[in-house]
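Contributing new records

If you add data, match the layout below exactly. Sequence lines come first and carry their own label; structure lines follow with theirs. Keep one chain per record. Anything else will be rejected by the validation script.
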Amino acid sequence: MDKTIRRVTDLEEQDAETYRYWQSRPVGERLAAVCELSEAAYSFAAAFKGVPAHVDQGSEQTRHWKGIGPS
């Protein structure tokens, strides 16, 4: 993972930098990131409402996309 810090001075420059970064990543990595963000958002929403979240629900699919777990 690239941990380079870039300083931007305006929102348009930041948006362009973010777009270039994500376009440089492989499709599978982008999909896995979307899946992880969705899981985090649903976990947060469930915790905020006081409902226990099932974090493992989508994680097997994420492992499959990353080539970590069984297919």
